């Protein structure tokens, strides 16, 4: 880490979010370590209060959260005095960006189902995905919902596909792009 940079904690819910942030930062030429950024996996959104209590003094905060878990981030940030009655716009102003519905959904929408299926084929999982689609519980779902569910069915698959899908992006989903831009801008501001 560059000693002139103010450290930044990047708070994410889980490992796939961490991998997506690292992958997009690398694609954009942002060295997270040099930027003073440390990614902290919360183990779910409810872990934010504990992470905020344990944060070192003087660190800048940013994060990525799923829409359904936004309230945990909002309340925890308000509890440490970073706002009152925070809205989504208020969260963004603080550097916290909300995925609708979650990061996997954002990536599927950004790429489109055909491209995601192509990535699944490249990763050697197309046969498993086609078998998954034929399961009774999946038959009535849209292909996007099937893809979303498939990504979470095996340990480590979310992380594998977070990397592979982000690498395929022409344009990153808004919340992921905003977070990486926030870290880059924060690093640039402290370097001056």
Question: Any overview of this molecule?
Answer:
This protein is of the alpha/beta class and 192 residues long. 54% of the residues lie in helices and 11% in strands. It contains 10 helices and 4 strands; from the N terminus they run βαβαβααβαααααα. The chain has helices spanning 15-27, 48-54, 70-79, 88-94, 103-111, 113-122, 126-133, 143-151, 157-168, 174-191, and strands spanning 8-12, 37-41, 60-66, 96-99. Strand 1, helix 1 and strand 2 (37-41) form a beta-alpha-beta unit. Helix 1 (15-27) packs parallel to helix 9, helix 1 (15-27) crosses helix 10 (174-191) and helix 5 (103-111) packs across helix 8 (143-151). The longest helix has 18 residues, at 174-191. It is globular and about 50 Å long.
Order of helices and strands: EHEHEHHEHHHHHH
Strand content: 5-15%
Identify the CATH architecture of the largest domain. 3-Layer(aba) Sandwich
Assign the structural class, choosing from mainly alpha, mainly beta, alpha/beta, alpha+beta, or little secondary structure: alpha/beta
CATH topology of the largest domain: Rossmann fold
Helical residues, percent: 40-55%
Total separate domains: 2
Strand order of the largest sheet: 2-1-3-4
Q: Could you name the ranges where pLDDT drops below 50 across 5 or more consecutive residues?
A: none
**Overall CATH class of the largest domain:** Alpha Beta
Largest sheet: 4 strands, parallel
Count every helix, treating DSSP H or I runs of 4 or more residues as helices.
10
Tell me the Rg in angstroms: 17 Å
Oligomer: single chain
Overall average residue pLDDT: 94
- From the N-terminal CA to the C-terminal CA, the straight-line distance is 15 Å
Q: Which term fits the overall shape?
A: globular
Q: Number of DSSP strands?
A: 4
InterPro entries: TOPRIM_OLD
Pfam families: OLD-like_TOPRIM
Protein name: OLD protein-like TOPRIM domain-containing protein
Organism: Conyzicola nivalis
């Amino acid at each position: 880490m560059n000693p002139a940079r103010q450290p930044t904690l990047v708070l994410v819910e889980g490992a796939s979010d961490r991998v997506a942030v690292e992958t997009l930062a690398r694609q954009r030429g942002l060295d997270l370590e040099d930027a003073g950024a440390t990614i902290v996996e919360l183990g779910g959104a409810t872990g934010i209060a504990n992470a905020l209590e344990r944060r070192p003094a003087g660190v800048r905060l940013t994060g990525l959260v799923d829409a359904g878990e936004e309230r945990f981030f909002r309340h925890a940030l308000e509890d440490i005095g970073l706002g009152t009655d925070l809205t989504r716009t208020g969260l963004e102003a603080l550097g916290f960006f909300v995925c609708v519905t979650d990061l996997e959904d954002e990536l599927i929408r950004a790429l489109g189902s055909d491209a995601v299926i192509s990535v699944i084929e490249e990763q050697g999982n197309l046969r498993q995905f086609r078998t998954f689609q034929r399961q009774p519980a999946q038959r009535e779902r849209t292909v996007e919902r099937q893809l979303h569910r498939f990504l979470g069915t095996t340990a480590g698959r979310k992380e594998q596909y977070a990397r592979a899908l982000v690498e395929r992006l022409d344009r990153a989903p808004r919340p992921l792009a905003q977070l990486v831009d926030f870290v880059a801008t924060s690093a640039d501001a402290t370097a001056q």
